Amino acid sequence: MKVRAEFYSRVKEIVGASAFERSLPKNATVNDLFEQLKGSYPKLRDFEKSMLFGVGVEFVDRNHVLNEGDVIAIMPPVQGG
Q1: Taking the CB of the first residue and of the last residue of the chain, which one, N or C, has fewer CB atoms within 10 A?
Q2: What is the CATH number of the domain that holds 35?
Q3: Number of domains forming the structure of the chain
Q4: Strands (E), the chain
Q5: pLDDT score, position 80
Q6: pLDDT tens track for 21-50
């Protein structure tokens, strides 16, 4: 299945794109996607414990099962000042 990953803030800088599509096996989870991304972009490991994921308009955990065509927002925690 194909999903669209969208990147924000520092994550966008690390992957060098604001979004792209990825192919995943059926019943893949957000964690499966993140593991795949870490393999391609090892610097994402710096955000291992703090990364936020959203599908649609809701934040989800890493065990969330993805569906064909899902759009997954991937971002570090919000920082302000």
Answers
A1: C
A2: 3.10.20.30
A3: 1
A4: 2-7, 19-23, 52-55, 58-60, 71-75
A5: 54
A6: 999 999 999 999 999 999 999 999 998 889
For 72, residues 6+ apart whose C-beta sits below 8 A from its C-beta are 3, 4, 5, 6, 30, 33, 53, 54, 55, 66
Predicted pLDDT at 79: 58
Q: Which two tokens stand for residue 75?
A: 């971002």
Domain that holds residue 19: 2-75
Q: Cα(81)–Cα(70) distance, rounded to whole angstroms?
A: 32
Q: How far apart are CA 66 and CA 9, in angstroms?
A: 23
Residue 15: enclosing H or E segment and its boundaries?
helix 9-15
In-domain check, residue 30? yes
Average pLDDT estimate for 3-19: 96
